[in-house]
Each structure stands twice: as C-alpha cells, then as structure tokens.
Amino acid sequence: MVSSQSVVEGKLNSLRRWMLEQRVDAYCVPRADEYLGEYLPKYNERLHWLTGFTGSAGMAIVLADKAALFVDGRYTVQVRHQVSEVHFELCHLVESAPAQWLAEMLPAGSRVACDPRMYSLYWYRATQTVLAKTQIDLLGITPNPIDLAWDDRPLVTPAPALLLKEQYSGESSASKRKRVGLQLSEQGADAALLFAPDSVSWILNLRGEDVLCVPVLLSMAILEVDGSLHLLVDADRVPEGFAAHVGDDVFLVAACEAEEFLSAWDGKTVLADPSTANAWSQLTLEAGGALLLAASDPVIEQKACKNPTEILGTRNAHKRDALAVIRFLAWLDRNLRDASAAPLSEALLADRLGALRSELDLFQGPSFDTISAAGVNAAMCHYNHLDNDEAFIERDSVYLVDSGGQYLDGTTDITRTVATGDVGEDVKHLFTLVLKGHIALAQAKFPPGTTGTHLDALARQFLWAEGYDFDHGTGHGVGSFLSVHEGPQRIAKLWNPTALAPGMLLSNEPGYYRDGAFGIRCENLLLVQSVEKEDQEVPMLEFDPVTFVPFDRRLLVVDLLSESERAWIDAYHQRILSELDLDLLSPDDFAWLKEATQPL
Amino acid sequence: MVSSQSVVEGKLNSLRRWMLEQRVDAYCVPRADEYLGEYLPKYNERLHWLTGFTGSAGMAIVLADKAALFVDGRYTVQVRHQVSEVHFELCHLVESAPAQWLAEMLPAGSRVACDPRMYSLYWYRATQTVLAKTQIDLLGITPNPIDLAWDDRPLVTPAPALLLKEQYSGESSASKRKRVGLQLSEQGADAALLFAPDSVSWILNLRGEDVLCVPVLLSMAILEVDGSLHLLVDADRVPEGFAAHVGDDVFLVAACEAEEFLSAWDGKTVLADPSTANAWSQLTLEAGGALLLAASDPVIEQKACKNPTEILGTRNAHKRDALAVIRFLAWLDRNLRDASAAPLSEALLADRLGALRSELDLFQGPSFDTISAAGVNAAMCHYNHLDNDEAFIERDSVYLVDSGGQYLDGTTDITRTVATGDVGEDVKHLFTLVLKGHIALAQAKFPPGTTGTHLDALARQFLWAEGYDFDHGTGHGVGSFLSVHEGPQRIAKLWNPTALAPGMLLSNEPGYYRDGAFGIRCENLLLVQSVEKEDQEVPMLEFDPVTFVPFDRRLLVVDLLSESERAWIDAYHQRILSELDLDLLSPDDFAWLKEATQPL
Prior knowledge:
The structure is a homodimer. By secondary structure, chain A is of the alpha+beta class. In chain A, helix 5 (121-132) links the parallel strand 5 (111-114) and strand 6 (137-140). The longest helix of chain A is centred in the middle third of the chain and has 30 residues, at 308-337. Chain A is globular.
C-alpha cells in the first residue's frame, strides 16, 4: 500500500530543511540501525518511516530536488506496491550503486551526509573513496535528522534482559570471557569490540526481547584480554541478579557515556571487524588513540560450535518443535480432504502453526517471519504473505511453509513442501530432484578442513543434471536460542573459508522455484559430529539431523530414487517415530504420522 | 646416491669464500632459475650441483659454519639418499620456514644474500619483512656465485625456436596480441610483463626445446596495449621466417640489454604478477620509474580456453596417444601371462611406453617424467623410478602408470592402474571407489560460475564415505602443446576462484594410496563444453573426455556400481572403439582391446 503522497512530501520536506541548515546536498537513509542486524525494533525502522518500504534491505538517498530508493532483486515487485515513484526514483541495489548514483547526480564540491552509526566502517570508507574521485565529501553527522522529525515514533520499551541459566548455556560467562580473552591475546590485541548483539548475549549468557525473532539484548561491549568486559547498555536494561549471573569484572557503560568510553583506549590495540561493526564506534576508538586491528569477531567461531548442553538443548527443542509441525500438517491434510471446509488462507495457516508452537514448553517466539506460501507465491523464495494480498491454498498444487521457533534450549528452522491434491508429474519430478540433493548432503561424510562450499554441489547435482538450479545458499548456521542465521559457517556457492567442525548447526535446504508456477524447498537442521568408527584411515565428520518431521511421500517419484536414497528416507521416517514423544500426539495426529512415515 | 663428501665440501668452500668477499652471512640457493618454472634446463640446476638433491622443489641456505636444505613432504625419504647430513641439516619446507630458520640462526645486523632472479617478488618481499623483524637485511646480488664456481656447468645449447603453424594454433599472433592488449587497456595498464615462458610462447605461436617436457622458448616479454611486443631473447634463438610468422610490431631485446630495457618504462603502468614473475624484473622496472600494477598474467585466462582448432588438435592427439597406451597395456598383459618372460622392471615399462609414443605422428617428446610404479612404489604419488633402486612388477598387485606426450596438435596426460594378477578384494574395493569418484566428476553438469573447488567433493565422496581420502588435487589444467600443468583453473580442495568455461582442458584424477602397500589413480583429460539441450532453464556446462583407453575391468567390484555408473563405463568403453582408428592396431592388440572393453 502506497503511503499518502502528502505525508511522504511532508517527511521529505522536513529532511530537506535539516539538510539546508547543515549545508549538505544529500542525505542517506539505510534500512539499518546502529547494531546493523537483520531485525530492527519498530522504533528504528527509519527507512520505512520515510518511504513506506518494508523490505529487509534498502537505502534511500535524498537530494534537494529528487530522491532515490535502492532495493535488491528480491524486492523489485514489492517496492512498486509500497513506494510512490513520484517521490522516489527506484534503483537496483548493488554494493556501490548508491555511491555511483551520488557521483553522477552531484557536482564536485558537494557534501553528502549520513549517520555513521548506521553503516559498517567498510561501507563508510569504500563510499568515501568512490565519492572522493569526483571531489564529493562524505560526512558523518549525529544526531539523526529522521529522529528529529519523527513525531509519532514508537516508544522504546525495553524489557529487561533475561538471564539464561547454565542448564541452557552450558558454560558460565566468566569461563567464556577467559577463553575468548586468551584467544585475543594470541592475536596480539589488548581488547576486542564485540559489536554483534548475539555475540554480547552469548558471552554474558543474556537474552533479550529488543527485536522480533532474535532474542538478544541490543548492546555492544568491549572485552579485554583478561576476560573483563564493558557492556554498553543502560543500567535499567539489566535485571536483578545480573552481577551474580555474569560474574566478576563486568562493568556497565551507559549510552550517554559511550562516546567518552570509546575515546579512552589511547595506545591500546582494539580488534574490531570493519565489515560488521558500525563506522561510528571504530572512528571514535581511533579518534581516541586506539589502534584498530581489523579481524573477525572472536566470539563468532566459539559460538558456532555448540557445547554438549547446547547440543542436547537443540535436540530437545527440535523434538518438541516437530510435534507442532506434525500437528499442523495433519490438521492441514484433514482440512484439505474436507470439501466443506472454509478456504484456507496463507495467513490462517501461518497463524495456526504459530499457535501450535506457542503451546510448547520453553517457547519464546518465532525465530523468523513464517513463510506460508500457496502455489505460485512459493516461487518467490523470500515471500511474506503479510506484504501481499490475501491468498488461499490452491488445490492440486504445493504449499510451502518455512518456519521456526525460539526456545530457551534452542532455535529451530524447518521447511516442508506439501501436496494440496494431485500435483502432476512435473512437480513430483522436481520435488524428487530437490529431495535427492537434500539426502546427498545429509549423508555426506567429509574430512576436517572441508567447508560448506566444498559440499554445496552435492545438494545441487541432481537439479544441475537436468538444467535446473536454485538461486540461494544451501545452508546457513543456526544459533542456540539466538539468531536463526549465524556465521561463520555456511553451505553455498560463494566461497566460505570456515571448516565445518563438530557442534556446528546448519540448515540443509535445497529448493526449486518456477516463476509464476510453484516453489519447493526441503529443509532440516543438521548437527556436525565426528564419525565414530574404528580403523578409519582418515578422521571423518558427518551430519546428524535434529529435525524430525516427515517429507511428503505423495510428492516422490520413487523410481528416481536410488536404493540408498529410499533407505535413507525410510530410516529417517522410522527415526521420527523413535525420537519423538508420540504419547503427546492426539489419536488423529498419530494416525496421520503413521501414514506419513510408511516405508516407500 | 650421496655425492662424494669432499666434492660437496669444495663447493661449499668456494661459495663461502664468495660470501666472505661480499661480506654476507648467508646465501640462499633455491631449486629455480630466472623463469621460476617447474622444469629447469640442466645448466640451471644449481641446487642439484650444490647439494646432489634432484627433487623439483627445495632450498639450500649456506652460513659460514653450517648449511641447511629445506625440502617438502614429497621428498623426505629421497633427500636422505641423495644428500649428506654431514653438510646439510635437513629441514621441512613450508613457505616461511627458511626465513624463520635464518632469523633464529643469525644475529641482528646480519646480511643475507640471494639472486633476485630466482624468486618471485612476493617471496622476496615476504622474506624481507620476516627478516626485518630481527634486524636482518636481505640483499639481491647478481651475478650468481654458483655460476662463478660451477666449472663443469653444462653448455647452454639452445635450439632455435619452432614456429607453430596456424593449423595448430588456430589464431595468428597479431590477433592474440591485439586481443590481450585490449584487455590490458581495460585494466588501466600501459603494458604487461609476460613472465611465464608458456604465455610468451602462446602469444607468439612459438615453441622451443629449452627444457624437458615443456615445449617453450625460455623468454619473457613486455606487451603493450596496442599489441606490440618486446621479446627478451637473443636474436640467435629465433629462426628464419620469425618476423613474417609473428607479424608486425614484435621487437627483440637481447639478454645483455634486458636491464636497460626494463629500466626505460618511467611513468608507465606495467602489469605484473608478483607471485609468479621474478623479483629482479619487477624491481628493475620499478627502479626505472614504472608503476607496477599487481595482477595476474593477462594471457593465462585466454590461453586456458582452447579455440576450435586447438580443441580438434587436442582430440586428435589423444586419439593417437591412446593407441600407444593400448599397445603398451596389451603388451604388458601378454608378458604378465607369459610365465617364462623376463622380470619386468619399472624402467623397462616406462621405456617401452615411451618408445610406442615416439612412433606416433606429430610426437615431440614426453609431457612429463613417466611415473611407472610397481606395487608398493605406487603408494608414493610423485614416485620416479629413476630416483630409486631398480624395481620389478609384483605379481598379484597393481601397477600404476602416469604418462603423457607432447604433440604439435596437443598435450596428453593419462593414468591407468592395472592388475598384475589376483589383487584381492581390498584393492578391488578401493579401485572401485576411486573410479566411482572419477565417473561422478566426469558426468557432472554445472552452471557457468562453477569452479573446480565446487566439484572436487564429487570425486572424493565415495572414499570419504568409508573413511578414505587422497592427498592431492583432483584435476589440473592442461595446455595445448604447452605445459601439462597450466592454470588458472584447477579442481581441488584449495579454493580456486576461476569459473570453468567452455574450451578448458582439465585432468580428472582421483586416487588412493596406502603407505607401504599399493597405489591407485584413474586419470582422463576432460574438455569443458556447453550442454546442447533445448528448453533448459539454466545454461549448463559438462565435461567431455578426450582420453580413450579402457579402465581395468578386472579391478572392479561390479556390485558397488550404480546402474548409471555401469552404463557410464560400458558407454565409455564402446566409445573407445568408435573414436579410435582401430585399423592401426595389430590383431593381437585389437583382440586385447575387444576383451578389455566388453560390457560389465
């Protein structure tokens, strides 16, 4: 829905008045806040306020007499529904596009302003370099002019942080801080800027409710080599018992003291990741005399390898989560069989699945916005029914549902594609090719040193053999009651140098999308573990699935499966029956599950 | 065989006298000459002269009172046979080991010397940086002290270059030079240092006999954006008709003028690859005022994608080459069956195969040193029978032969592993796993943008599944009557960013090596080509084999093969019969081939 034109006009005018006062010729508004994360709290959705665009990535640039909105290929259709082309030229977002557009639009000597808290240092310096070629200056200015003009800005209503018990985290904060501090000293740093809120939350065994789907406390921290930590968060954000929970040597720095605090590291070497940490924090450290050591966040690799407590929690969370998904799929099938049932909308289905999850023990919320996509809509792999007209399940097609939950003991993410009737041979053929790829990856064994990029082709080979492919990664890392997308490991074509290691949790989600027709995706989460086998010449790693929900047997062309693939599917389906607590299912749901897990 | 101790002593003494005169505390002698290639002419084997070591990589460092020889894992056994530990401490060669050893051995203020023509600029600068940490200087000094002391140095007997006809090259030098020149101007360079002799030979359609196995003219060149080229080679190296052959705007620069010539690029931007071009050439350019642009040799990517003439030539060369290998394998089988035959030594077999190749049309020489390895010796993947005691074929084992030829129309490289009797189930099982990997890679289809690293796991997956692996790359690029190892493409675990593209030629050579027992390798060369299929959603590439010699059916466990793998082997064997000119085989050899290509 396009925002009222006069409203947009008013917002642009107020921004332009500020630009005049500041004597700047352009102002950039990205879809980001100072934490540069995927999910933003509503009160930080500045790009949406200015433009009406709800996508997860984009940037507006406002000049005195025109404005542009840059969005990537995922959002080219959606942006036309949401944004008026009267006010914004719509442009394609690739890394350097905004800077190049500015260089074309503005004469030499122009001044471009931005809020340096909303960009990585990497982006900030690269953009400065591009603009300098045409004698244009990039200036970092705070406070943010959107904040000054945003009258009805939602209130910041921060709930206090949650203290995550060691029965879920498996290691005390003091122990984690010592461990990472030791690693820092080996890297030659005196301290590290822990910029990602999930790194901070992990190392302090804290969680929060500041943003949807990612249970972090929005904060950053500086960790010293001795394990002491300075948490940049206001004291009212931490609950009673905080000091006892996190242990000694954790100090709070209030927001109003942050700049002064970051300016006080003169002569110290501070590790920070210029591609993920915001420009402001690093420029402030540098201005105060700190030496920046560019390296990746030292917490990320530690966090990626789950400890035994987290592994057990992840397995338990997935077993409970599977019950909700099975109940949902059984309910859906019963409704599809009932000719008198009311039409099933995508939203109704997403809500039903959400409600079933919310009944589960330790449930804290969804781990991302559910993708509930009927028929043709499933061909858009980042579809969100909330951004589109109400759509109903199509009969004789496929329905794709990609969803997950946050639990105190783990984070889940699962996609199933189900038949809504007689789908025809073409859809079955492609579903089978996708599932063959899923199985090849799930069955892979590989030596230490192997990265996700080495394994990516295993999941694509059967599609490739027939001239098909899918345009997204095959697998992403998943946190432990943290972000459903976490690094550093990844399974994708793009080179990722991180070797897969025991304790890493990854998705396995090959798919196939036919524009204007249908979409397919088969996703389980997998844990990396060592192969326990005597007399092996080379140590090997393997995946163990933690997701236990049947794949839709009605979509399989059994003749296309090798014996080993058939055996894998049958064994996986049998394992569902042995892993889950079947007593918790109603007789109807249990009957559905028995049917759905019959051998092929 | 260890060189006589007094001889080594004398050589070290003369080097140490020179070091005293030059007031340097250490001198480095690498296994390299100024072209930094894999094969060296005998008169440039300076490391061998000094130490007796014949391996293809290594470095000696001589101090006033001690010396060390660094070799990598391939040569740890061999070096003990060849080099006296009285004179040289034997050390493990990894990139920074020599510099670290120097830093430990020498006090601050020491001076280390080397000949800057024998090292890449990358090595030279990295070593300077390491040594500078302990206040040690690295000095580049010419002339080379080995050359001054080497009394019985083999004479330089350069044959004149060969002018490769367009019926083999498929494109005139003028056209190639214009094309690469255009690319240079897009990169913002005024000129490029073509440092690799195979790049120079390719762009001028020249070949040479300066080194064994790689038919290049040892030379370097500077190419300008307009396509004009300065060839650094003495005039007596080019034959009559050279000027007409290479076309206009090719100028000769004699060796004695090279330094002056490289010093005359003041203010010009000259592209050079610091990891492959020698330090001396780039330091000389820089000292003369040239701006160095570090980038990879612009010829390498052009050369990698064979043109239609080269593709046809490669196919023809392989069809002829296959006849020699088939005659060899048939002869070997007849000899193995004949209980009264004389024992078969590795050397005898290698010579027999070489003799059979030398009878073929357009044959110019071997493309590398034949690996003829019986039984346990095949477990060493870089085995050379010439470096070892005479060994004979073992019965009831496997024999591995990896060999290739240079022909005017192409370069071949093939490995076959053959049974010498009843090998037992274990060897058959592993041979089958290796061949399954070979087939998976050979059958792969993949979209443009796919690199060799993406496909490497396809060849290893069956070994990995049972806890095995092999410790070398799966495939290397191959030239067109040029080096049998050429880049930029490669199929290996180590990340290689080069996308496979139509016209590239690569080996497919998975293997398995059991220390002290046996070795297996199955190698064909493959051409990358587009999949010709209507209605494909995504364009796809595939491999087409150019090698046509049977794999040993007696080594297969047929039950381990999928239907598709059996069909691939049978179709490949049938294709041998249809591709080759069978009339050229003797009745005995033809009968052997019919038997060897029977369906499974």
